[in-house]
Structure formats: C-alpha cells, structure tokens
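Just wondering, can you check both lines?
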Amino acid sequence: MLSSPNFPPENASIRTALRHAFFWLVAANAVGFLLALLLVAPTGGGLLGTWTYGRWMPLHLNLHLFGWTSLPLVAWLFRLYGVDAIGLTSWGLTAIWAWSAALLAGSLAWLDGQTSGKIFLDWSGRSLGFFLGAMVLLWGVLAAAWFRGRRGKAHLLGLLALGAVPVLLALAARPEVYPPVNPESGGPTGASLLGSSLSVVFLLLLVPRSLGRRRAEGAGRESLYWIVFGLQLAAVPFLERTVISHREPSQWIGLGLLLAWIALLPIFYRRYSWSPLERRWLSASLAWLALLILTGWLTFLPGLLDAAKFTNVLVAHAHFAMAGFTSTFLLFLAVVLTGGTRPLATGFWWWNGATLGYVVLMASAGLFEAADPAWILHPNPTKTSLYTLRLLCGLVLLIVSARWWLGLLKPHEPQSAANN
C-alpha cells in the first residue's frame, strides 16, 4: 500500500521513500494526538493497560525522527547518488521497506517497555539490531550506486561519513557509554548547541546544488557563506574550553553567532531558481528557522533559561524545531523531489497555522509554570483550556498529514505553476 507502480521507474525508490515518510508522519501525529488527549483526560489512560503514556512517548519522538525526518533525506540521497537512474531501484525499495520494518519492530519494543532510557536513542536489543541492519543495507545501496555510477570524490567522502553513522548509533545506545541520567552533565551548552546547529546549516548549504538547481542571473560565488560557516565552526572548540555554563558570556555570545544565518540563508536561497510551490514551502521553512534561532538564543540567556527549563516553553521550542522548521523544509524537499505533486500544494496554511497555535499555547502554559511551578500539578480552567486547544491543533496536523499521505498514494500528477 505504501508503494505503487503508478510512478515512473526512473524515480520509483525516491517516491516510495517519501510515501513511507508521510506514513510515519501520520503515525507519529496520531500518537501525538493520543498523548495530548491523555493530558486532557488522564483517566482514559486506564483503558490502555500497560501501554501507558510513558510507553507511547518514545513512539511519538522516534517515529518523527527516524521515520518522518529521516526518510525524505534518504530520498534525497537516492537522488544524489542516482540510485534509480543507474538501475538499482529494486535494491532501493528493499532498503526502504527494511527501514520501515525496523521502525515497526522498534515501536513494538517501545510499547513493551524495551528501551535504553535515552531520549532519541531508545533502540535496544533486537530492535537495535534490526535498525542497524537497515542502515547498513541502505549504505550498501548507496555504495553500489557510487561504484556503478562512477561518482566523484565528494560523493565518496559523503559515503564514508554515512558509513560511520551505524557505528556511532550502536555505541551511543550502549548504557556504559553514558548513562540515561548523567548527574555529571550540565546539559546543552552554547558550544554544543552551536555545533549541532551548524550541522543543519551545512546541509542547508548543500541542498540547492545537490538538487541540480541553476543559479539565478547575477548570482555571485558562494564563498562568503562557506567562510562564515567555517569561522563559526572554528569557534566551537574555543567555546568548549571556556566555563561550561549559560551564565558564561562566551557561551551565549557564541550561540548568538547563529543569528547571522537569519539574514544569510534567505539571501543564499534567492540565488537559485524555484517554482512557486517550492518557494512557498521554502519561505515558510526559512521563516520558522529564523524564529527558531531567535527564540532559542533568547531562552538560552541567563535568567530566561532558568525560568523556562523543565516547562512547556521547551515543548513549544521543540515544536518550533520539528513541526515548524524541520517539517516545512522536508515538505519543500518533497515538492522538489516529486516535481510538485498536487497533494503537497494543499494544507499549507492549515499546517503552519496549527503549528503556530500549538507553539503559542505551549509557550503560554510554560509562562504560567514559570510563575508558579505548582500550576501544572493541579487541575485548573486555564490549563484545561490551553491543553484542549492544543489537542485541536494536533488534530488539524493529523488530518493535514493524512491527506498528504493519501494523496501521494494516488497516481502522480504534477502541479502546474499556474496553480501554485
């Protein structure tokens, strides 16, 4: 049901990867809706038996990360390495189904309480073995595509970097590497947040040329953007040698270096030609990224972080990142990779509006918590209202994502520029 012969064979694995991605988006949103419902009506949890709120939470997080977020990037890699173009479609499809099968095995394990206890690293036991096997199979497909297609050194370097991912995941999931609860860790620092954020910037700088997009007339060289990126990357080890605390000026000043990308990335992407539908999702993504960088930096400042941490403010920030920036960018990528399908031309305002509503509601709840930590512990009309409205926003996100997925299961129909 997730794959169909309706799509041309030259990009069948790309489209199948996207169909699987949207399936997992629907599944993750459905779990999120269930979790939001339990927060509004907690007595309903008794109907779920041993599948409690804590058992469902890893599914919501991991299906978003390893399903919805990862598979569009797999489709991008298939395009980059020419998996369909050089006759490896069947192997690409096998890798995709293996990936989804591993996610299914992981979901059953998490509902059964089998987890490493580490957020986003819940893989353990057999489910970890299944997922590592799927990752190795995917890497083998990309390696075969590189060898058969006689790709260049840049593709080889990318392949070598990807080969390290299964090894790093296997090591990070082991409890002896670092415990799920580490009292010696002070949490994220300006240096670590800067470093992880620059990995996202790196991918954003690679996307246009990797998709074969031509530059707009009059566009100059890209050296300025890479120089800024290199200087910021060089600042990470320097920041790591200073006092590790958000109260240390070097930490929040260093994290503030990311503010430059609020202006630089829109200018960078304007150097390339995009269709109206691509530009719509790209503009939304860059707008969400600007808000994410700005609010992330503000909430890291001394005083603000102390009040916001362990409250719904961080829930709001997480949805800024996932439902806002990440999802809209993946939708932009999906539009590019499919040539603009009609289903992805719908739901734009519903998705972004529901996400914004969700973020505002959770940020508001976080402010109440910051003023009175006991506010979240006892029933009150304000909390009930905020959580009920949050539930409705989650329902909108679920319906929109389900419409996208069902639309992608139909025969491919390019979206004309006139309708964008």
Observations:
- The mean pLDDT is 87.
- The radius of gyration is 22 Å.
